[in-house]
Amino acid sequence: QATSLLGAAVRSLSTSSPHEHPEHGRLVYKGNLAKAVLGVKFFSYSTSIFNLFMMPYIMLKTGIGFESLFVQAAFYGLIGFFTFVTPVTLHVLTKGYVIRLYYKDEVDTYTAITYNAILAEKATVFHREDVKIPDITKMFTTFYAKTKSMLVNPTLFPNPQDFHHLMGYDKSLYFNLEEEEEADGRK
């Protein structure tokens, strides 16, 4: 009976391909920095929490509460910077990093998986028409999905055609010369 249960478990685990996700579609992209982003954010959050819990102890043991106002402001500013500004900055810089990107052929929708502020995975669903390419290359933005900036590495797409379709590079360029002439005539 143990063998039959093991066989059933193996069959149930192998029913879906690692590249398929039933509700999201086919996996077209997997970011290689996902674990690094998660690790850095987790480390930053944990050190901030540690600082918040250690602050009263440090103030009591060092006697900084009785020093000059300038020393107090410098100390609290430094601790406050590393406690609050660093995690917020890391979140702002990495919130658009796409961990995984799925594509559903039937409805032409993409699902981008990113990390939210509490380190949980967040799914953003958008259509190909919602993708906007920034006019000027931005450091942490490859494209905008609706209004949310997304960062992907084009070289990590196993099939380059998936990236071209996402960015709209596979659309044919059609120029209507009559419309252009009418637009020039109105000016």
Automatic annotation (TrEMBL):
<comment type="similarity">
    <text>Belongs to the TMEM70 family.</text>
</comment>
<dbReference type="Pfam" id="PF06979">
    <property type="entry name" value="TMEM70"/>
</dbReference>
<dbReference type="InterPro" id="IPR009724">
    <property type="entry name" value="TMEM70"/>
</dbReference>
<dbReference type="InterPro" id="IPR045325">
    <property type="entry name" value="TMEM70/TMEM186/TMEM223"/>
</dbReference>
<dbReference type="GO" id="GO:0031966">
    <property type="term" value="C:mitochondrial membrane"/>
</dbReference>
<keyword id="KW-1133">Transmembrane helix</keyword>
<keyword id="KW-0472">Membrane</keyword>
<dbReference type="GO" id="GO:0033615">
    <property type="term" value="P:mitochondrial proton-transporting ATP synthase complex assembly"/>
</dbReference>
<feature type="transmembrane region" description="Helical">
    <location>
        <begin position="36"/>
        <end position="58"/>
    </location>
</feature>
<keyword id="KW-0812">Transmembrane</keyword>
<protein>
    <submittedName>
        <fullName>TMM70 protein</fullName>
    </submittedName>
</protein>
<feature type="transmembrane region" description="Helical">
    <location>
        <begin position="70"/>
        <end position="93"/>
    </location>
</feature>
